[in-house]
């Protein structure tokens, strides 16, 4: 997963959001977990969360008697996660492409981050997810919807109402990638950008199939209406910011 931008971006984003108290409130994660449980739809015990960040989702699941392993790339974020981890959470610092895991899991999560690298990188990671998944397990992965990002390219905003941080969304037509750029007001030269591949439902279906994984459900997220400034919690699969796929082994 290490690229020219990933480690630098996520470290700087973590520093900015921590220093400005710009993280989503705790109820944001508390509301997300029941959605995840409903999407899984059956009991599970062991969880692998990729790109787990500070471990907010992992800790809530752990308090519900699940055993969680999290993998995060940036050492500083891992240090924070370890200090705040529930006893049922094991925090690992490493690269998805090289880290060695000795068990399989009932549930694998990759929320809000899939698409680092090129199609080969996604295929490689999906194959690793196949290997980490128990025979009757599920994976839930968020995928960025290209039609949405094409439509909102160029939009700027203040994330979480913090007036001195500016965030700009854009779209790379050549690479079919969303870009998400952050900078502090007056410090445009220090801007940081992430670039994540976007996939239509048909495209991600093909990638997953090659890895031996079958998509059994699509769950569209909401979409930001920049004309009204309101976030629409319900959007169609063609209009959503991203959609979640539910995977099992074929």
Automatic annotation (TrEMBL):
Classification via Gene3D superfamilies: Vaccinia Virus protein VP39 (3.40.50.150)
Single GO biological process annotation from the record: methylation
Gene Ontology MF term list: methyltransferase activity
Database matches in InterPro entries: Methyltransf_25, SAM-dependent_MTases_sf
Domain Methyltransferase intervals: 47-137
PANTHER family reported for this sequence: TRANS-ACONITATE 2-METHYLTRANSFERASE-RELATED
Protein name: Class I SAM-dependent methyltransferase
Lineage: Bacteria, Bacillati, Bacillota, Bacilli, Bacillales
């Amino acid at each position: 997963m290490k690229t020219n931008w990933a480690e630098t971006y996520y470290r700087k984003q973590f520093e900015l959001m921590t220093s400005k108290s710009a993280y989503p409130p705790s109820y944001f994660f508390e509301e997300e977990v029941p959605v995840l449980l409903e999407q899984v739809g059956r009991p599970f015990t062991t969880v692998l969360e990729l790109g787990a960040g500070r471990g907010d989702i992992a800790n809530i699941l752990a308090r519900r008697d699940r055993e969680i392993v999290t993998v995060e790339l940036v050492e500083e974020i891992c240090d924070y996660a370890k200090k705040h981890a529930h006893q049922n959470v094991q925090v690992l610092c490493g690269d998805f492409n090289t880290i060695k895991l000795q068990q399989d899991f009932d549930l694998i999560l990759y929320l809000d981050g899939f698409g680092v690298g090129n199609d080969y990188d996604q295929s490689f990671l999906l194959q690793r997810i196949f290997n980490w998944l128990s025979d009757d397990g599920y994976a839930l992965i968020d995928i960025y919807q290209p039609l949405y990002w094409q439509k909102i390219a160029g939009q700027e905003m203040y994330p979480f109402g913090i007036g001195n941080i500016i965030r700009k969304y854009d779209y790379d037509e050549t690479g079919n990638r969303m870009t998400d750029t952050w900078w502090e007001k007056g410090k445009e030269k220090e801007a940081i950008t992430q670039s994540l591949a976007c996939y239509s439902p048909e495209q991600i279906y093909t990638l997953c199939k090659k890895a031996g994984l079958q998509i059994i459900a699509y769950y569209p997220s909401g979409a930001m209406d920049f004309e009204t400034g309101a976030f629409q919690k319900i959007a169609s699969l063609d209009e959503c910011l991203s959609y979640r796929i539910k995977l099992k082994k074929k």
